[in-house]
Design goal:
The chain is mainly alpha-helical. 56% of the residues lie in helices and 4% in strands.
Length: 193
């Protein structure tokens, strides 16, 4: 309920990153959803959770596909099946450690968030609190850090490049030449039209 009406100054993930990086502050700014260009929301849903507006927080189909891919390659941590809602639950309320207890709490929190917050608030929280690089949180902070401009001034390709790094922003930047980033940019651009 707190998250329905409040925008926290910090999250457990931000605090963990400050300790991990040995810094006092992270780069973070909040921008209301009504000031975030709709193309950004569309790109996020395309890249991170294409069923976002159809599921109730947990996407069984995505979890099943991720499990099948992981079993095929023999690495259970390679493909994730988390929804945007699950990612918000993790980012906003849980510590960044992998355990069955944390996953259980994540599922419970996700269901509660979907019931209490609604889709628009969940998207708003995601875009404002997701990690976009070492000590960079929120898409507007990422836009200013990487492109030196506000999100409303980003080109479609710049926006796609920011969204494309979300699977691992500690490793990738929007300027990365990695196959993962390039493939995700192409996918976003293809389905945006």
């Amino acid at each position: 309920v707190y998250l329905k009406f409040n925008n926290p100054k910090t999250t457990p993930l931000m605090e963990a990153r400050k300790r991990e990086l040995g810094i006092k502050e992270v780069k973070h700014s909040f921008i209301p959803l009504n000031r975030i260009p709709s193309k950004i929301v569309r790109m996020l849903v395309i890249a991170e959770d294409c069923n976002f507006y159809r599921h109730t927080g947990i996407d069984i189909e995505s979890i099943t596909m991720a499990l099948q891919k992981n079993l095929k390659i023999g690495n259970i941590r390679y493909y994730g099946g988390s929804t945007i809602s699950q990612q918000v639950a993790r980012t906003m309320l849980l510590l960044p450690e992998k355990s069955f207890i944390r996953k259980y709490l994540e599922l419970i929190i996700t269901i509660e968030m979907e019931l209490i917050l609604g889709k628009n608030r969940i998207i708003e929280l995601y875009l404002n609190y997701a990690e976009w690089g070492r000590g960079i949180f929120g898409i507007n902070s990422a836009s200013k850090y990487f492109f030196k401009k506000d999100i409303s001034s980003l080109s479609i390709e710049e926006t796609a490049r920011l969204i494309a790094i979300l699977p691992n922003p500690k490793i990738y930047s929007p300027f990365s030449e990695s196959k993962l980033v390039q493939t995700r940019v192409e996918l976003i651009m293809k389905y945006l039209q």
